[in-house]
Amino acid sequence: MKNSRFLGVLGTGVVLIVWQIVGMTGILGPGIAPPTAIFGGVMHDGLAFYGVHIPVTLASASVGYLWGNLAAIACAALVTTVPALEKLVLQVGIASACIPLIAIAPILAACFDGVVTSAIMAAVSVFFTTLVGTINGLSHADSSSEDLVRAYGGGEYLVLRKVQLMSALPSILTALKVAVPAAILGTIIGEFMGQERGLGAALVVAQSSSDVVRTWGITLVSSLIAGLAFLLVNTVEKIATPWAASTSGVNA
After folding, report:
1. Number of domains present in the structure of the chain
2. Would you say residue 227 lies in a domain?
3. Phi/psi at 137 (nearest 5 deg)?
4. I need a labelling partner for 34 at 20 to 30 A (CA). Which of 72, 88, 183, 223 fits?
5. 156: domain range?
6. Considering the domain boundaries, does residue 35 fall inside one?
7. Four-point Cα dihedral 128, 130, 136, 140, nearest 10
8. d(C-alpha 168, C-alpha 240), whole Å
9. 9-37 residue pLDDT tens
10. What stretches of 6-138 adopt beta strand conformation (E)?
11. Would 73 be classed as within a structural domain?
């Protein structure tokens, strides 16, 4: 464990050093800013800049993340209780994952205002991941527990609530964790479509004005937000499903 951490830190340090050299020398062109300049630019912009844009992006991403995941979990539950709908629901999910986000963003922007467009883009981005994870979890529920509930007179809804959802909870939370960066990305792409505020809108302005340092800074901040949100959901996963962690440890 210590060796892997050391190697991880060492690898990160090497990447940063090489990045700094490439950025300072400009051997790959002016589009690569050195990490020191990026960090300095973020500090210079500070809350005066990011305090305006981050809340807008977070609000849209949160709304889209919530409704996209709720829709995915509901569709997965529907598939489990009505198996005949599985093919249709999966086709819709695959379509949502295959259609390029940048292709549907202009269509949504023509129909809705900017904030709604970003939220829908976030919802579309997370739908398929959570749908597949939830269906996989629900389908691997313990059959003997399901039979026990049915033996006591429980219907499909009670089986779903008492057995299948509890069994699928680790898979659902894993899918929710993976969906976090997708929601941020979908929101930022949605903000490209003419919004005045949001990290995506700020990124478009920075690119248009050829502000390389700020462009990299916005990208860095966006990645940091996605990483922190990922860690938050990961913490919730460990608290909500401690048995899943212990089981994986035994299996390993």
Report:
1. 1
2. yes
3. -70, -45
4. 183
5. 41-241
6. no
7. -160
8. 12
9. 788 888 888 888 888 888 878 888 888 98
10. none
11. yes
Both structure tokens of 210: 């050829």
Q: Which helix (H) or strand (E) covers residue 10, if one does?
A: helix 2-25
CATH number (domain holding residue 135):
1.10.3720.10
Q: pLDDT at position 63, please?
A: 95
Coil/strand/helix, residue 60: helix
Query: To the nearest whole percent, how much of the chain has pLDDT over 90?
Result: 35
Burial classification of residue 109, based on how many CB atoms lie within 10 Å of its CB (0-12 exposed, 13-18 middle, 19 or more buried): buried
User: What single string gives the DSSP state of each residue in 169-187?
Assistant: HHHHHHHHHHHHHHHHHHH
pLDDT band of 244, cuts 50, 70, 90 = low
Confirm whether 8 is domain-assigned. Answer: no
* Amino acid of residue 90: L
